[in-house]
Design a protein that fits this description.
Rossmann fold, elongated, disordered N terminus, 3 domains, alpha/beta, about 475 residues
Length: about 475
């Protein structure tokens, strides 16, 4: 059942009917990816393929034009050569269509004035007819709750993360790769050139959407920087907002123009905007995924003091360097914490100051000792977060060790309220990588997020502690 809608964009994300212009009698036609995806995700509305001569497409009755569809149409997807888009848009206006998603590319992003003029003409027809546009040059909408998607491979299960992206490719990767780390989405929008509906229009919708608890975005340039600033300043006090900004270098800024006809702004201005609004800024897909996972599954770190658990010798030194380069601090634990740790961790071959070099103790084999360790870290007034790095052993007994450690972590998490960042780094061997993936799945299944590198875990803590400080400074 489609839900009752109240928000002005609800009929876009929960349409009762969708027409696909450019659908093909060929099973593998490009436009058919939307129809196949809708079928796979269980879209409850009506689907109208549009083709000049086909009678049926993928089991649905086909119509020669949008005007010939006998029922109301909420959303029309264009997957046609740009030479015919003006006529198809005119058909949509005459039909009274509410929204058009322009998958078709070849407009202002080409840098050619005649193509940019075609985009302007298209927008003018739409505006006069009361049609709102998504795109052009974009993949459109993914809303698993309503069954909208541009790929039949996207997950069917909905979740709390909303994402707005200028890039369809990066939006797709975020959905696929994020799903492997347990991220589920409320709505994802690929908006391309944004000749009409802008990023802040979609973000404002997600900001009000009760199904969306965490917002993310990939942007290259802003056509209305003031509207984006006002949105960010208001929303970050209610929902975390994670943004990956493309076009941060001179070369990247040039590339944005050919990608989505955007003009990238100064990196210094961007950094200042993030500081003023509480945006959590990230610089890669891995950082975007890890930050989102941390926000979804863990409390915010209330400072930058971290306890490092699992290093040994030189590893402890380099981990400390890496943490402090990311803006964290690795202070000695409180004297009382050290004293109590020394009661069950032998001083010989170990260190309980911080980093905790405790490989020659029973902590990783004894549930009581492991729980005591986590309880003491939780009670230590100096520590705000924990980074847990325990490499997976290869060879005999490795899986047994992994299962034991997973069990210990589950027990330890019962007594600690501070965020614990579990690092599972990549492995050079096939055996080791398979074991790492198995461990990651086990942690995900019990609700514990993992991070692919120590540096990334440290960076996420640093970013989120800044977000906590922003909220604290504004009384939230």
């Amino acid at each position: 059942m489609l839900r009752e809608t109240t928000n002005q964009l609800d009929s876009l994300f929960y349409p009762k009917s969708v027409a696909v212009v450019g659908a093909s009698p060929s099973k593998n036609g490009r436009a058919n990816q939307w129809i196949n995806g809708y079928i796979k995700l269980g879209f409850q509305g009506k689907i109208f393929p549009v083709h000049p001569s086909a009678e049926t497409i993928l089991g649905f009755k086909s119509y020669p034009s949008v005007r010939d569809i006998p029922e109301e149409v909420d959303l029309v997807i264009f997957s046609v050569p740009f030479a015919v888009v003006l006529q198809v848009m005119q058909d949509c206006v005459e039909k009274g269509v509410k929204y058009v998603h322009l998958f078709t590319a070849g407009f202002s992003e080409t840098g050619q004035e005649d193509q940019a003029d075609l985009e302007r003409q298209l927008l003018e027809i739409a505006q006069k007819g009361g049609v709102r546009l998504i795109g052009p040059n974009c993949m459109g909408l993914y809303c698993p709750e309503s069954g909208l998607t541009w790929s039949e491979d996207f997950p069917k299960t909905a979740g709390p993360v909303g994402f707005v992206s200028q890039s369809g490719q990066l939006a797709s990767h975020f959905i696929w790769d994020g799903a492997m780390d347990g991220i589920q989405f409320s709505k994802v929008i690929s908006f391309g050139n944004a000749c009409d509906l802008q990023s802040h229009d979609f973000l404002n919708y997600l900001g009000q959407d009760e199904k969306t608890e965490i917002l993310g975005s990939y942007i290259e340039g802003l056509k209305d920087g003031r509207a984006f600033f006002e949105f960010a300043r208001n929303i970050t006090r209610k929902k975390p907002f994670v943004v990956w900004k493309g076009g941060q270098t001179e070369g990247g800024a040039r590339a944005t123009q050919s990608h989505t006809a955007s003009i990238a702004g100064s990196q210094k201005i961007w950094q200042s905007l993030c500081q003023q609004t509480g945006i959590v800024s990230v610089d890669s897909m891995e950082e975007l995924i890890s930050t989102t996972v941390a926000l979804k599954k863990m409390p915010l770190p209330r400072g930058t003091n971290v306890a490092l658990v699992g290093g040994a010798g030189g590893g402890s030194v380099t981990m400390t360097d890496a943490a402090e380069k990311e803006g964290l601090k690795v202070p000695h634990l409180a004297e009382e914490t050290q004293r109590k740790l020394a009661e069950f961790i032998p001083i010989s071959g170990n260190s309980v100051r911080n980093p905790l070099d405790i490989g020659f103790s029973n902590v990783y084999r004894d549930e009581n000792d492991f729980v005591r360790l986590f309880k003491l870290l939780n009670d230590d007034p100096i520590i705000n977060a924990v980074i847990f790095f325990r490499g997976l052993r290869r060879g005999r007994g490795s899986r047994k060790d992994m299962n034991l450690l997973t069990s210990l972590m589950l027990k330890g998490m019962e007594v600690i309220e501070k965020p614990v960042y579990i690092v599972l780094p990549g492995n050079r061997t096939l055996e080791g990588e398979a074991l790492r993936e198995e461990a990651q799945d086990k942690y995900n299944n019990i609700g514990l997020p993992t991070f692919p590198s120590f540096t990334l875990a440290a960076r996420v803590i640093s970013n989120l502690s800044q977000y906590y400080n922003y909220l604290f400074a504004h009384g939230f």
